[in-house]
């Protein structure tokens, strides 16, 4: 169970000090910049066709209609649970932390959510799972965070 946080309680990974060195990530949440459900999926698909909707996390995780095999393989290789949510599936706690900064990636550290990647970093991945994995690893390293296996 995660603690209830306000946006002020969220740890800024760029400001972690030695006291929290190598804090352990126990879960990752990926938030798409799109709503889920039939209506949300259709709206995103229509927007994508019209070039008025873009979600860089969607480009990383999905091909035209289904999850990319490379994404599924990466997700299975990560030593913590990885959950992907749409904007309208966020808990109030996660919504308060992410606000309109989607797509994004949050890490759970000591029961608190840490914002680790935002729209700019995900957009820079250009839909490439390997680039995403490297960008995430670099962000976690800068924040002195690691997975339980030390990676």
Produce a short descriptive summary.
This protein has 151 residues and is α/β, with parallel strands linked by helices. The chain has six helices and five strands; from the N terminus they run βαααβαββααβ.
Write a structural description.
It contains 6 helices and 5 strands, in the order E-H-H-H-E-H-E-E-H-H-E. By secondary structure, the protein is of the alpha/beta class. The protein has one domain (7-146): 3-Layer(aba) Sandwich (Glutaredoxin), CATH 3.40.30. Strands 1, 2, 3, 4 and 5 form a 5-stranded mixed sheet that branches. Strand 3 (104-109) and strand 4 form a beta hairpin. It starts with 22 loop residues before the first strand and ends in a 5-residue tail after the last strand. Mean pLDDT is 82; it is low at 1-20.
Q: How is this fold's topology laid out?
A:
Elements: E1 23-31, H1 37-49, H2 56-61, H3 69-77, E2 82-85, H4 92-98, E3 104-109, E4 112-117, H5 119-124, H6 129-142, E5 145-146
Parallel strand pairs: 1-2, 1-5
Antiparallel strand pairs: 1-3, 3-4
User: How many DSSP E strands?
Assistant: 5
Named CATH architecture: 3-Layer(aba) Sandwich
CATH fold type:
Glutaredoxin
Q: Which regions have little confidence, pLDDT < 50, spanning 5+ residues? A: 1-20
The backbone outline, from C-alpha atoms, is globular
Count of individual domains: 1
Q: How would you spell out the order of helices and strands?
A: EHHHEHEEHHE
């Amino acid at each position: 169970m995660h603690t209830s946080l306000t946006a002020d309680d969220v740890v800024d990974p760029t400001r972690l000090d030695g006291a929290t060195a190598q804090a352990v990530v126990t879960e990752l949440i990926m938030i798409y910049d799109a709503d889920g459900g039939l209506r949300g999926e259709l709206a995103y698909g229509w927007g994508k066709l019209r070039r008025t909707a873009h979600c860089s996390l969607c480009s990383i995780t999905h091909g035209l209609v289904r999850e990319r095999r490379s994404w599924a393989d990466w997700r299975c290789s990560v030593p913590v649970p990885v959950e992907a949510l749409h904007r309208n599936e966020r808990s109030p706690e996660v919504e308060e932390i992410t606000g309109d900064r989607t797509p994004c990636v949050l890490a759970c550290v000591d029961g608190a959510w840490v914002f680790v990647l935002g729209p700019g970093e995900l957009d820079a991945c250009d839909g490439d799972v390997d680039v995403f994995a490297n960008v995430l690893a670099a962000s976690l390293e800068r924040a002195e965070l690691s997975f339980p296996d030390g990676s």
